[in-house]
């Protein structure tokens, strides 16, 4: 790494102080060897306030949330930005370009950035070129996409002499998640309301299944004919179920299910099955690899999405700081690992 | 990578044509974009014979097994050596140095090489320096050590905000493994015979628990007080059990168990529990991480050791060819992944 100052203290900007960005900031505050030097958000409710106040941690941090990106970057000269604004590549592209041009590394939880080549190869190429030119690394990560349905799958194929078919399933009991997540999956709606919200785009389903499939295929050198993402389907409560916030009547929507397939020679050789609903009794993350050897792997209960996304975003900081410049995906970087309290120990 | 010829065809030497080396060679023969150009072994039974004959594949390969390492390397100019001779760093050190000095990358299944720093830091440093000087990568890998009890554990901590304690268990039903493995774990012996063979060094237990613990600790930035490897204990058959080759009476030794601990502040914060015995009904690989979030992961049945070791050794070839020079461990390289039939697709 050209910049040796990073080893004494990593200077980080929080770009997006929402549900995930706020949790990222709180985790970073528990670490040593890293300092939050700036915070960016567009919300009028947050701009001008001290970050500590926005985070609700009961103390000021001396970092004022700003919507003036250029000014924050010019004044704080961060090594890296923790970027958590939206799920879509086209929306984050100009934001990432600004960071890159300021010589700032990026860890982003933008789902489409986890494997941007299938969203818009031209934008991905531009990001890669710009990152190389300015000597920085840009990474999209998260628990899913970013780990459970792609990186972990890829790692497990590492012990296979042959891989014929892959099936990945994630079943989340939405009752254990925050309310916005429960609403996002349509919990408590009637079937008709659910269909309307799908139509209007108010419910989008999980963003990232395509990215996960494309990343697995790329890692394995598989040339897929296509990636097929099925429409989001409601999961109907067979009996009344509830979370702390939402009661679901029998016959109403408890959540949703979405499947996606990587197709080769007309057959699905990668199947991802994502289910999130209130009342799921068998929460788990399962990977089945039909190969030599066959692998049946299961994590029980499934890993909590928010906890895991915040963790892996922070944990990838040292890997990003040490990588060669360019646009990276999780498969290009060293095996992820938890960071110690003092982050400088792994720099 | 300096040498672009590797992208058209990787030239590989098989160094050690034993149980594992032979299987590595057979797997490589099923791949395209890679060619076995030489084979090294010290056994008089193999030297001078065609590799195809030694492998028992019913055809000649035009590669004669030789015990003249220098000559093979000078004449065949390999990019990489698949090295499978012994488990111990001091034994492989001169072999590795010869490979390095000939500018040959190394993937080795030497257990102690998976994390050599705790065996002999001086030798490890010499290997690293020499590898850098000659522009090559040296990697020790395998299923265990190399993946199940270290790399996979490390990868799973990647989604943790905090890790307090790690427990890893591998339970192998030895009846499904080759006879030398069954013998190596003492299956069929009386307790007295077992103790004698432990004493004489004829049974050594599993080599690599220390390496796995040290690699995990390093990845997490944990400074262990010490690594404690318990003595190998026999697992006694409670009822008669048998493999195809060995019958174990009730009260005799069915196999062995070995535990190892990474100790910090007087407490075991990493526990590895390795069990291999005939009649194990609950074969599995389990990882439990006490952290935030808690992770309970299980692979059922456990991954077959030989299959997995051969796979991961071959699968790491592209990662080694693309890495920066030096002595590497699995935690330093990108996430492992299965190689396609045509290995050039991932170069």
Description:
- The structure is a homodimer.
- Chain A is of the alpha/beta class and about 350 residues long.
- Chain A folds into 2 domains: about 10-140 and about 305-345, NAD(P)-binding Rossmann-like Domain (Rossmann fold); about 150-300, Dihydrodipicolinate Reductase, domain 2 (2-Layer Sandwich), CATH 3.30.360.
- The first copy, chain A, has helices at about 5-10, 20-30, 50-55, 70-75, 90-100, 120-135, 150-155, 180-185, 190-200, 210-220, 305-315, 315-320, and strands at about 10-15, 35-40, 65, 80-85, 105-110, 135-140, 160-175, 225-230, 235, 240, 245-250, 255-265, 265-275, 285-290, 295-300, 325-330.
- The first copy, chain A, has a 7-stranded parallel sheet with strand order 3-2-1-4-5-6-16, sandwiched between helices. In chain A, strands 7, 8, 9, 12, 13, 14 and 15 form a 7-stranded mixed sheet that branches.
- In chain A, helix 7 runs parallel beside helix 10 (about 210-220).
- The longest helix of chain A has 13 residues, at about 90-100.
- The model of chain A has no long low-confidence stretch (mean pLDDT about 95).
- Chains A and B meet through helix 7, strand 15 and helix 11 of A and helix 6, strand 15 and helix 10 of B.
- Strand 15 of chain A pairs antiparallel with strand 15 of chain B, so a sheet runs across the interface.
């Amino acid at each position: 790494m050209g910049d040796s100052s990073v080893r004494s203290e990593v200077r980080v900007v929080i770009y997006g102080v929402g549900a995930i960005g706020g949790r990222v900031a709180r985790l970073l505050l528990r670490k040593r060897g890293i300092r939050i030097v700036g915070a960016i958000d567009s919300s009028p409710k947050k701009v001008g306030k001290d970050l500590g106040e926005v985070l609700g941690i009961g103390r000021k941090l001396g970092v004022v949330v700003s919507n003036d990106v250029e000014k924050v970057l010019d004044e704080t000269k961060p090594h890296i930005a923790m970027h958590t604004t939206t799920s879509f590549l086209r929306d984050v592209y100009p934001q990432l370009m600004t960071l890159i041009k300021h010589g700032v590394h990026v860890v982003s939880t933008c789902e489409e950035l986890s494997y941007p080549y299938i969203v818009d190869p031209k934008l991905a190429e531009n990001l890669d070129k710009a990152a190389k030119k300015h000597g920085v690394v840009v990474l999209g990560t998260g628990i899913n996409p970013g780990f459970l349905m792609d990186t972990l799958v890829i790692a497990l194929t590492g012990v296979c002499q042959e891989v014929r078919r892959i099936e990945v399933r994630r079943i989340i009991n939405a009752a254990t998640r925050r309310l916005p997540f429960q609403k996002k999956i349509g919990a408590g709606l009637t079937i008709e309301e659910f269909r309307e919200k799908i139509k209007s785009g108010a419910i989008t389903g999980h963003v990232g299944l395509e990215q996960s499939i494309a990343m697995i295929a790329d890692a394995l050198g598989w040339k897929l004919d296509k990636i097929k993402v099925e429409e989001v389907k409601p999961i109907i409560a067979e009996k009344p179920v509830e979370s702390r916030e939402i009661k679901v009547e029998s016959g109403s929507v408890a959540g949703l299910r979405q499947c996606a397939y990587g197709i080769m020679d007309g057959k699905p050789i990668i199947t991802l099955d994502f289910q999130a609903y209130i009342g799921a009794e068998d929460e788990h993350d399962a990977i089945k690899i039909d190969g030599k050897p066959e692998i049946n792997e299961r994590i029980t209960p499934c890993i909590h999405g928010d906890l895991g996304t915040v963790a892996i975003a922070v944990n990838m900081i040292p890997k990003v700081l040490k990588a060669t410049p360019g646009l990276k995906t999780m498969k290009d970087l060293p095996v992820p690992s938890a960071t110690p309290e003092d982050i400088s120990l792994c720099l």
